[in-house]
Specification:
Blueprint (H helix, E strand, L loop, with lengths): L4 E5 L1 H6 L1 H10 L4 E5 L3 H15 L3 H36 L3 H11 L9 H20 L4 H25 L4 E4 L6 E3 L6 E2 L1 H9 L9 E5 L2 E4 L4 E3 L4 H13 L3 E6 L20 E3 H9 L7 H10 L2 E6 L8 E4 L9 E17 L8 H11 L6 E4 L5 E7 L3 H11 L1 H6 L2 E3 L3 E11 L8 H11 L4 E6 L5 E7 L3 H11 L5 E8 L3 H21 L1 E9 L4 E8 L4 H6 L10 H9 L4 E5 L6 H10 L3 E4 L9 H13 L4 E2 L10 H10 L4 E7 L2 H11 L4 H10 L8 H4 L2 H13 L10 E2 L13 H7 L4 H13 L3 E9 L4 E9 L12 E8 L7 E6 L3 H20 L4
């Protein structure tokens, strides 16, 4: 005889996909035994009926029983309809009239459970039991267990009835006849050897049949009905596999396997292909909902392979659990998040001798059946921290107070106030000891997000590492750790402010680069919001970057600013949230600070917040630091050129910056290049505006104020306490021309300067000089100068063409030959590329560079 297979069919699968369940059973290798989980609705109905009966209201009790009858009848009717629909599709596909007629006749069969004898016998037993409860006016815990066993037996009888009417040789069997359950000490364990022995006498009656076993049901050593509780059907299935010495067990569920994380927290969680028994046990120990330690024990004993699969997609491999596990044990398996816990602890003030705090505290809580999910003890046992269920924290504190009453009264021991709610976050890795820096990556990921780690624990078997974090940070922590260990694409959620030249270009980059970033760099950039001065478009599911601007413009524009504070709250609960400021608006620093407070990172091309008075700028940076948020602003100087980061690296590595010179404005660089080629000033400025180099009103560029802001930003990176108003600025054109507010009128007024500028350029060219708009920073003098400056061929800026920007760092290391950064320094597309680069830096800082 072939080895047995065991199926465990989940309640949701029975209720929602009965036709698929029947097909799985029909097509499965035989011999086959099926363990059917109860339906949640069945359990609820019987418990409500028991409450009504206990209160003497048998009519109401019978109403609840009738609701269960109707539920099962409805499932049978739905299955009948599903078969009819399938037959009609098949009928339409065939042309053979005889074949069609045969199938049509089969489809007319109606599944009927109303008069099934064994099912009705169960209902009659249920009604007698409820009558007894009504007469006694009592429904004890033992009686409730009997009712739950009856609910499970009803579901098993229902499934057997449907299979029999499908001409599948199924029979519902009574698990109390062979499952022997030890209920002592409040724990329910199936006696594997006793159950195996008792099952041998029943096996002949199963010959050629498919036994349908009610899940979570057994009989105690005292002969009473024993309900196995949570994961009871799983436990029944693996215990049955042991009793049958089966080699294959399949759990059919509504998920495609053991997931890498809770899908409700991590939408792109996926099934782990393989696990060892030990790895699965580790997950079970940390509260992984799908697995329970007692479920795995019979598997390990008989070395049966367990496969967890989806009823909806049986062709998918699911998760296989056996003694071999993953062929690549260096890969992480899962991140678990056990929520609604509390941290309690005691500390000894006697430091010169070892204590037994841990042993005494754990013993006291164990006697009261309080589950300790994690305990950490300091050297010599001077203090111990315990993670317990939040709903038992008051009881735990009282027990610890009683346990250490004498020491507390003498002041030698102090109990800490509990901290709740906390979540126990655990990374399970099947050979953690052979993979370096797991702990470092785990905690640095949390640290980069500003998540406080309240307690830490690592298993001696080197398969898991855990920490307690504040419950409010569960979602972002799970997602970040999941991404950091390469279990998924790193998800970055963006809220874009501004739809000007840079904002439009950034949207274009996002649309064009999405596939490349996802496939080659494992980054998922999601635009979840876009806003302008009077409109906000936001969708947590993501916006199409290619059409988002069009949808934003279709919204009515308000005279009031959009409700960004509400948007920040929503954004802050998403993985790696980033506020992207592509505006040039003043006053944005207040928005940045609100974003930081909501856990949002900021990437900005806006120079104004960094050129605020020194104290306000420092407050902004300190706010980012306080909330552990990133604030990247590389594009505020030199568009996409790495100017700020280069300067920071010089300072970080101890170099002494003696002078900085640069052409920071690609716009003014473009104008200088045009003028040196004898192009009139007015025409060159108009050309710069049309090409997107300048601001909408070119006056803002020609004033020199933009370059001065950039110089102030760089100077402050050197630690110079300089203010914008104290900067020595010489405009590109005479100051009297800068009072014109109308852009077109301003361009026309520049025609008056064409002749003078042309003459000046000829004079410079005659002397072998070229005009450049230079910013000069002198740290030793705490001085910034900005203005048009002739340079000769020895100056680094001599060879600049069109919209090139340049900065030269003269330092102690780079004294004779300055460190030069040079490249395109203007244009929406280039600046947007720099903004995108800053966004990607945030992802790299969290999860580490992959390539």
């Amino acid at each position: 005889m072939s080895a047995w297979n065991v199926f465990r069919i989940g309640g949701p699968s029975l209720k929602n996909h009965l036709a698929l369940v029947i097909r799985l059973i029909e097509e499965a290798p035989k011999p086959l035994a099926v363990v059917a989980s109860s339906l949640g609705e069945a359990n609820d109905a019987l418990l409500l009926a028991a409450t009504a009966a206990e209160n003497g209201d048998m009519d109401k009790a019978k109403t609840h029983v009738q609701s269960l009858r109707l539920l099962l009848q409805g499932l049978a009717a739905e299955h009948t309809e599903a078969e009819h629909t399938e037959a009609e599709h098949t009928e339409a596909e065939h042309t053979d009239a005889e074949h069609t007629e045969a199938e049509h006749t089969e489809a007319e069969h109606k599944y009927n459970v109303e008069n099934a004898p064994r099912l009705q016998a169960c209902f009659e037993e249920l009604e007698r039991f409820l009558t007894a409860i009504s007469l006694l006016r009592l429904c004890s815990a033992e009686m409730q267990e009997t009712l739950l066993c009856l609910a499970s037996r009803l579901v098993a009888e229902f499934l057997a009835c449907i299979l029999q009417q499908k001409n599948i040789p199924a029979v519902a069997v009574e698990p109390r006849t062979f499952f022997v359950v030890d209920t002592q000490a409040g724990k329910k364990r199936i006696g594997l050897e006793q159950s195996r022995t008792q099952l041998q006498a029943l096996l002949p009656s199963w010959e050629g049949k498919i036994p349908i076993v009610a899940g979570a049901v057994g009989q105690s050593l005292q002969g009473q009905c024993a309900y196995l509780g949570r994961n009871g059907a799983d436990y029944s299935a693996t215990a049955l596999a042991y009793a049958l010495q089966a080699k294959e067990v399949s759990f059919w569920t509504d998920v495609p396997g053991v997931m890498t994380a809770d899908p409700s927290l991590v939408p792109d969680a996926y099934p782990v292909p393989n696990l060892t028994y030990a790895g699965a046990l580790e997950l079970a120990h940390f509260g992984f909902r799908m697995l329970h330690a007692r479920t795995l024990i019979p598997l390990i004993a008989c070395k049966a392979r367990l496969t967890v699969k989806s009823t909806l997609s049986p062709e998918q491999a699911g998760t296989r659990i056996d003694e071999f596990g993953n062929i690549n044990p260096s890969l992480p398996t899962c991140i678990t998040s056990l929520e609604k816990l509390a941290l309690v602890g005691v500390e000894s003030h006697i430091s010169d001798e070892p204590t037994r705090l841990g042993a005494r505290a754990l013993s006291a809580l164990e006697k009261a059946n309080i589950r300790v999910w994690m305990s950490t003890e300091s050297a010599l046992g001077q203090n111990i921290t315990l993670a317990v269920p939040q709903n038992q924290v008051a009881q735990a504190c009282a027990l610890l107070d009683d346990c250490f009453e004498e020491e507390r009264l003498s002041g030698s021991i102090v109990r800490w106030e509990p901290h709740a709610p906390v979540t126990l976050l655990t990374l399970v890795l099947e050979n953690m000891g052979t993979t370096p820096n797991i702990a470092g990556r785990f905690f640095s990921t949390l640290g980069n997000l500003g998540i406080d780690v309240r307690a830490i624990s690592q298993s001696a078997c080197e398969r898991s590492i855990s920490c307690a974090i504040d419950g409010a940070q569960t979602s972002i922590a799970v997602r970040a750790v999941h991404a950091a260990f390469n279990l998924a694409h790193t998800e970055i959620n963006l809220l874009l402010l501004g739809k000007g030249v840079v904002g439009k270009s950034l949207l274009s980059h996002l649309a064009q680069q999405a596939t490349t970033l996802r496939d080659n760099h494992h980054l998922a950039l999601r635009l979840v919001g876009i806003a302008d001065s009077g409109r906000l478009l936001m969708d947590p599911k993501g916006l199409d970057a290619a059409t988002a601007l069009q949808h934003l413009k279709s919204l009515p524009k308000s005279q009031q600013p959009p409700p960004l504070q509400e948007a920040f709250i929503r954004l802050g609960h998403m993985p790696l949230p980033v506020l992207v400021d592509c505006t040039a608006s003043p006053g944005m620093e207040a928005l940045y600070e609100k974003a930081f407070a909501q856990g949002i990172n900021v990437v900005a091309a806006n120079k104004q917040p960094l050129a605020l008075p020194w104290l306000k700028r420092e407050q902004l940076l300190q706010t980012a630091t306080h909330f552990h948020r990133a604030y990247h602003y590389e594009t505020t100087v030199g568009a996409s050129l790495p100017i700020i980061e280069t300067l920071k690296n010089l300072v970080r590595t101890g170099d002494e910056v003696q002078r900085v010179e640069g052409c920071f404005s690609g716009t003014l660089g473009f104008l200088c290049d045009c003028l040196m080629r004898a192009e009139p000033l007015s025409r060159a400025v108009r050309k710069a505006r049309d090409m997107g180099y300048s601001e909408p009103n070119p006056r803002d560029d020609l004033s020199g104020l933009d370059v001065a802001r950039k110089a102030v930003i760089l100077a402050r990176e050197l630690g110079m306490r300089v203010e914008l108003e104290n900067t020595n600025i010489e405009p590109f054109v005479p100051a009297e021309f800068l009072s014109e507010n109308n852009p077109e009128a301003f361009l026309l007024s520049l025609e008056k300067l064409d002749a003078a500028f042309s003459q000046h350029m000829k004079a410079l060219d005659y002397k072998g000089l070229r005009l450049r708009y230079l910013a000069q920073i002198e740290p030793s003098e705490n001085l910034i100068r900005v203005g048009p400056t002739p340079v000769d061929a020895s100056h680094p800026a001599w060879g600049l063409v069109e919209a090139e920007a340049l900065v030269a760092f003269y330092t102690k290391r780079y004294r004779q030959y300055p460190l030069i950064v040079r490249g395109a320094g203007a244009g929406g597309e280039i600046t947007a590329a720099g903004v995108l680069s800053d966004i990607l830096r945030i992802a790299e800082n969290v999860r580490g560079r992959r390539r």
